[in-house]
Design goal:
mainly alpha, 2 domains, three-stranded antiparallel beta sheet, 5 helices, 5 strands, elongated
Length: about 140
């Protein structure tokens, strides 16, 4: 959950520790527009601030992280509830999440890799200029 003040985040954390429903806590204290009311799988491309993602990665027990996580870059505060710390428990969902969220990074890199690997050469000047203007990394010829 994201909040725009430390006070709101602390109140949300206290409410959650007192067994308040997470949806109700987000509605009352949160400022996030991305929370859908369901569990989320986060990876390095999910858009979470580094401080938050690092804290999640270093957690070795499930449940609420004991303190509010502050992101000093954008002045936001986060309350995190870790559902599982055992990768096997969410392996399939994690793979799907990475495929959905990271495909915009993976696809161009993979395309450029294979174009270079198989010495893709463009002989038509108009096609060359068109590809160069849309994705220069696809131009792999010398």
């Amino acid at each position: 959950m994201e909040a725009d003040s430390k006070k709101k985040a602390e109140n949300a954390l206290k409410a959650l520790k007192d067994d308040k429903n997470i949806k109700a806590a987000v509605k009352e204290y949160g400022t996030t527009t991305t929370y859908k009311g369901t569990e989320e799988i986060y990876n390095s491309k999910s858009g979470l601030p580094t401080t938050v993602f690092d804290k999640i990665k270093s957690t070795n027990k499930k449940g609420l992280i004991d303190s509010v996580i502050e992101d000093t870059t954008n002045k936001k505060y986060y309350v995190v509830n870790v559902i599982s710390v055992t990768p096997k428990d969410f392996e399939e969902d994690a793979i799907n999440s990475i495929a959905e969220k990271a495909s915009s990074d993976i696809e161009p890199a993979a395309t450029a890799y294979y174009l270079k690997k198989y010495d893709f050469t463009i002989y038509d000047k108009d096609v060359y200029d068109g590809i160069k203007s849309t994705n220069e990394s696809y131009i792999v010829q010398d």
